[in-house]
């Protein structure tokens, strides 16, 4: 759902990852607490769009990000419209979209490695209670790099169904699970083979 | 030097490899045979990924069965599927992971990783998502990850199976002449690649059935299907 890093030299690209993550946390809380009327929600949304410009991304990028959120917008907006009315539906949906877009600005302008380094720094105090930050960071990196692989496995299953003219429906989840577990085995072998385990 | 004595491997009570005894002093070694013949299992015993059930195997003076940790440090292993071998989101981080395991200081990692990647023609790819690389580039990256640790022996399990002709040739050339390792073991179905090695061994049904000059071993393998 969230876009990956785009290289660039914008102001937001140059800010340290820790500052951006902290900023994201603050802005998310502020948006949630302050933007409680249709007008302030609209302002929050516009401000987020303006931030995209600071990150060196044009309207095409944020429109694409927003388009990826279409199902959330639809489900959230429609259900709130039915139960709470138009104004509340607009306010709540705009707030959620603003916060998710804020997060995507951070991922668009921050290298994954820098993000993880910032996280390791933030986790450093937990060392005293036995948490090894570098281990946490490594696990996160492994998980992140596994995402496109799992997505690729899902695509292969879809292709196989199409090629054979069958539809597994929900059962394809089992196939995906089996393939994913096998990939996990392969990764474990790779960790061992590379002298890391 | 690679030495196996009475080497056997069972998995779930089924024999996969049986009574393999061989000495291989050559620099480049091809391992050929049908699917399921035990050649991959043999390769995996060389760096301790698979433990012998019977007998012993020695690589670079290390008894792999009793000291798998040292064996893994000395023996680099390349899989046929690079997706399983690339562990980090970007090539730079992935090479960095191997470099850190080799003791390179954290602050030198990005620079060193870039240098290593450049040697494999991937210098400008350091910060791009690893999944966006082509199949050939992924295998180059996987090989780079193995070689940056300067292993004494390199074992490659069907390294060119998924590659086109050009990339297969490139990986093969690198394995045969560019690893800097004392010995290179290549498990392969590519009989032309096998013929370029110093020696070839062939497995069939879990047993070592042939060894010697690669051209002879390949020729006798071909006659089985003539």
Q: What does it look like?
A:
- The complex is a heterodimer of chains A (197) and B (226).
- Chain A is an all-alpha fold.
- Chain A has two domains: 11-110, no CATH class; 129-193.
- Helix content of chain A is 78%, strand content 0%.
- In chain A, α5 (70-84) runs antiparallel to α6 (86-109).
- The longest helix of chain A has 32 residues, at 133-164.
- With 226 residues, chain B is an alpha/beta fold.
- Chain B has a domain at 2-82 and 150-223: 3-Layer(aba) Sandwich (Rossmann fold).
- Chain B has helices spanning 39-45, 68-74, 82-85, 91-101, 109-119, 135-147, 165-177, 191-195, 214-223, and strands at 2-11, 14-24, 28-33, 54-59, 62-63, 75-78, 153-157, 183-187, 199-204, 207-212.
- In chain B, strands 6-7-8-3-9-10 form a six-stranded mixed sheet, with helices on both faces.
- Chain B is globular and about 50 Å long.
- The model of chain B has no long low-confidence stretch (mean pLDDT 92).
- The interface between A and B is medium-sized, with 24 and 29 residues.
- Give the fraction of residues assigned to helices of chain B: 25-40%
General shape of chain B: globular
Regions of chain A with pLDDT < 50 over 5+ consecutive residues?
none
Biggest interface, CB < 8 A = A-B, 24 and 29 residues
Give a quick summary of the entry.
The complex is a heterodimer of chains A (197) and B (226). With 197 residues, chain A is mainly alpha-helical.
Write the layout of secondary structure elements.
The complex is a heterodimer of chains A (197) and B (226).
Chain A: H1 11-14, H2 17-34, H3 38-54, H4 59-68, H5 70-84, H6 86-109, H7 112-123, H8 133-164, H9 172-193
Chain B: E1 2-11, E2 14-24, E3 28-33, H1 39-45, E4 54-59, E5 62-63, H2 68-74, E6 75-78, H3 82-85, H4 91-101, H5 109-119, H6 135-147, E7 153-157, H7 165-177, E8 183-187, H8 191-195, E9 199-204, E10 207-212, H9 214-223
Parallel strand pairs in B: 3-8, 3-9, 6-7, 7-8
Antiparallel strand pairs in B: 1-2, 1-4, 4-5, 9-10
Helix pairs in contact in B: 4-5, 4-6
């Amino acid at each position: 759902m969230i876009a990956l890093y785009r290289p660039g030299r914008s102001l937001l690209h140059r800010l340290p990852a820790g500052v951006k993550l902290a900023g994201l946390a603050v802005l998310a809380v502020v948006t949630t607490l302050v933007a409680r009327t249709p007008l302030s929600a609209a302002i929050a949304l516009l401000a987020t769009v303006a931030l995209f410009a600071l990150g060196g991304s044009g309207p095409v990028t944020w429109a694409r990000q927003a388009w990826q959120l279409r199902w959330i917008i639809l489900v959230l907006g429609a259900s709130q419209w039915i139960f709470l009315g138009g104004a509340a539906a607009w306010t709540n949906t705009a707030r959620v979209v603003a916060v998710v877009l804020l997060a995507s600005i951070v991922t668009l302008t921050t290298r994954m490695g820098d993000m993880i380094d910032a996280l390791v720094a933030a986790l450093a105090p937990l060392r005293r209670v036995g948490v090894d930050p570098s281990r946490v960071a490594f696990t996160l990196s492994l998980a992140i790099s596994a995402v496109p692989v799992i997505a690729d496995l899902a695509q292969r299953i879809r292709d196989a169904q199409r090629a054979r003219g069958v539809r597994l429906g929900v059962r394809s989840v089992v196939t995906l699970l089996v393939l994913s577990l096998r990939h996990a085995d392969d990764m474990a072998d790779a960790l061992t083979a590379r002298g890391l385990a | 030097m690679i030495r196996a004595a009475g080497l056997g491997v069972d998995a779930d009570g089924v024999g996969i490899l049986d009574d393999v005894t061989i000495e291989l002093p050559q620099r480049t070694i091809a391992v050929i045979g049908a699917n399921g013949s035990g050649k991959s299992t043999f390769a995996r015993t060389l760096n301790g990924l698979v433990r012998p059930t019977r007998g012993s195997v020695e690589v670079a003076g290390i008894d792999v069965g009793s000291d798998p940790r040292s064996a893994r440090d000395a023996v680099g292993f390349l899989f046929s599927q690079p997706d399983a071998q690339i562990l980090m989101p970007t090539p730079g981080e992935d090479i960095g992971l191997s470099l850190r395991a080799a003791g390179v200081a954290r602050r030198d990692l990005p620079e060193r990783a870039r240098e290593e990647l450049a040697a494999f023609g991937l210098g400008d790819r350091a910060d791009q998502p690893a999944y966006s690389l082509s199949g050939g580039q992924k295998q180059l990256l996987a090989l780079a990850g193995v070689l940056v640790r300067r292993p004494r022996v390199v074992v490659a399990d069907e390294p060119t199976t998924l590659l086109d002709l050009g990339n297969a040739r490139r990986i093969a050339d690198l394995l045969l002449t560019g690893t800097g390792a004392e010995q290179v073991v290549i498990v392969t179905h590519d009989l032309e690649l096998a013929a370029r090695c110093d020696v070839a061994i062939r497995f069939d049904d879990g047993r070592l059935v042939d060894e010697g000059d690669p051209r002879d071993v390949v020729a006798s393998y071909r006659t089985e299907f003539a």
